[in-house]
Write a structure and sequence with these properties.
Number of domains: 1
Number of strands: 7
CATH class: Alpha Beta
Mean pLDDT: 89
Strand content: 15-25%
Distance between the termini: 36 Å
Oligomer: single chain
C-alpha cells in the first residue's frame, strides 16, 4: 500500500463512515460470539490500529501487520503486543488464538489460501475468523490499484476459500447493500486507467451530515444481517470456525 495511505487512514479511521461502519459491524459480530473470559484476539493486517483499539475492550489483542509504518501508528494509539509479520507466516503458537480478525487483507495477498491455512493453525479448536473483503470484480477501480489489491471476491468465492482451508462457514453476507447500485454506476461511468504510482484511494468527503447518515444506514444493515444475509453489496463479511 502507498505509504501516504497509512497517514490518511490514521487520520480518518475514527470518524469516516466507511471505517466506523466496518469497525462497528465487526464489534457487533465479536460481541455476539460465545467467548471465554479475556479472549485472545489477533488482528491480522491491523493497519493503523483503530479496530484493534476497540477490540482491546473485549479481550487481549495481538496486532499483526507487515508494515512497520502501520505498527508505528498503532503505538501512537497506545497499543502494545505488536508483531511485524506476514499473514502467511504468523509468529504465533498453534492453537493460541480465540478469534482472528482479518479485515480487508486477503485481497492484498498473492496466496490468500496460504494465509487462511496459517490463520487456521493459530486458532484454537472452535475459534473463529472474522474476515471482510471487497466484493465483485465489476467494482474494480483506482481505489483497488491505490491499495494494491490483487482481486475482489464474490461471497461464494470467499466461502469456497474458507472451506478449502479447513474452516466451517457460520455466517456469510454482503455488506453495504444499499450503496452497491451507486458504487456500480460510479465504477462504470468514471472508470479510467491509472498507474499504481499515481492511484489514490477514493475517500470522498460527503460532509458531516451525509457521513452521519451513512453510519446510521450501515447500523440498520447490521441489524438486518443478524437475521438474514444480504444478497449483494460493496464488501463481503464471513465468520468461519475451526472444527473442534
Amino acid at each position: 500500500m502507498n505509504p501516504a495511505e497509512y497517514d490518511r487512514m490514521y487520520n480518518l479511521e475514527d470518524r469516516y463512515w466507511w471505517f466506523v461502519s466496518r469497525r462497528e459491524l465487526v464489534l457487533d459480530i465479536v460481541r455476539r460470539l460465545s467467548l471465554p473470559h479475556d479472549p485472545v484476539i489477533v488482528d491480522v493486517g491491523c493497519g493503523t490500529g483503530a479496530t484493534a483499539a476497540a477490540l482491546s475492550k473485549i479481550g487481549s489483542v495481538v496486532c499483526v501487520d507487515v508494515s512497520p509504518l502501520a505498527l508505528d501508528y498503532c503505538r501512537q494509539r497506545g497499543l502494545g503486543n505488536l508483531l511485524e509479520a506476514r499473514a502467511e507466516y504468523l509468529p504465533l503458537e498453534p492453537g493460541s488464538a480465540d478469534i482472528v480478525v482479518a479485515l480487508d487483507i486477503l485481497e492484498h495477498l498473492e496466496d490468500d489460501s496460504a494465509a487462511l491455512k496459517e490463520i487456521l493453525r493459530v486458532l484454537k479448536p472452535g475459534g473463529r475468523i472474522v474476515a471482510t473483503v471487497p466484493a465483485c470484480r465489476i467494482l474494480w477501480s483506482e481505489h483497488d490499484v491505490a491499495l494494491a489489491h490483487k482481486r475482489r471476491y464474490t461471497a461464494g468465492q470467499l466461502s469456497q476459500k474458507m472451506r478449502q482451508a479447513g474452516f466451517r462457514v457460520d455466517t456469510l453476507s454482503y455488506v453495504l447493500f444499499l450503496l452497491f447500485p451507486l458504487a456500480f454506476l460510479q465504477r462504470i461511468f468514471c472508470r479510467k486507467p491509472v498507474s499504481s504510482d499515481a492511484a489514490q484511494a477514493q475517500v470522498p468527503d460527503f460532509g458531516s451530515a451525509v457521513n452521519k447518515l451513512l453510519i446510521k444506514l450501515q447500523r440498520a444493515e447490521t441489524a438486518v444481517m443478524r437475521h438474514i444475509p444480504l444478497p449483494w453489496g460493496v464488501s463481503v463479511v464471513c465468520v468461519a470456525r475451526k472444527p473442534e
